[in-house]
Amino acid sequence: MDDHQASSMKAGGFYGRVSGRDDVSLQRQLEIALEKAASGGYVIPSGHLYRYADNQITGISRSRSEWDRLMQVITTSPPPFDRLFIMDSSRLGRWGDPRWRPYIEVTLELAGVQIIFCDVEHPVEFSEGMLDSDVGQYLSDVIDTVNASRERTRIIRRFRMAKRDRVRNGFYPGGSVPYGYVRVLVHRTTGEVIREVAPNEDVRLPDCHFSIRPASDGTADVVRFVFRAIREGLPVSAGDDCLPEFRSQA
């Protein structure tokens, strides 16, 4: 692209989101957006007014730092662009309520910005009303949004059921542990403790799940004392004086 072509193109914006390490990288999302923008006569300039990206952020959340900044730029002043390029609708979000996506699209359009999903060949243009040729694409988008919402609901339900089953079998489903406890890897079938897991350690072994055990550094005694003090009506603030006696009785 020469300087004359670049100067004749309109400015567009970009939003990207990555939820995990195995997700499509932000750089790749930007590359896809740049290609889509160029095909429509747009360019996405560098700079904080044109490029927004949330890293390691789930699509469930409606509030994200970069997305919130983007919405503020679009809705509180004349936006610096009239097209916002996003790789696909899942980058925008994965909400249980299927109405949230059209709400955002309409909100941005009222501010003068149309969202362009790069995986949609012919986006529906509503500026002159619904055309007959757009009905099929619009209904397809609605069905996709509803199906994505239903699938997310099913995934959450299955996840919660699996989580309850693990708890019932003595395994700990959380990442961080309560004060006074440590995480350990336990064999799912035999119940054998494989080893202790460090607080920030990310480890997975076949046929193993996490469980928790009282810590051996004395913090578990503090927890026991607090609950005993509450049960017996003692002031918990007296812990420093009473804890040695409690340990001798434990």
Which features does this protein show?
3-stranded antiparallel beta sheet, 9 strands, 250 residues, Rossmann fold, 8 helices, elongated
What does this structure look like?
The protein has 250 residues and is α/β, with parallel strands linked by helices. It folds into 3 domains: 3-148, Rossmann fold, CATH 3.40.50.1390; 171-217, no CATH class; 220-250, no CATH class. Helices cover 42% and strands 17% of the residues. It is built from 8 helices and 9 strands. It has helices spanning 3-8, 26-39, 65-76, 89-92, 100-110, 135-168, 219-232, 239-249; strands spanning 10-11, 13-18, 42-43, 51-55, 83-86, 114-117, 181-187, 193-197, 208-214. The strands form 3 sheets. A 4-stranded parallel sheet has the order 4-2-5-6. A 3-stranded antiparallel sheet has the order 8-7-9, with no helix packed on it. A two-stranded parallel ribbon has the order 1-3. The radius of gyration is 26 Å and the shape is elongated.
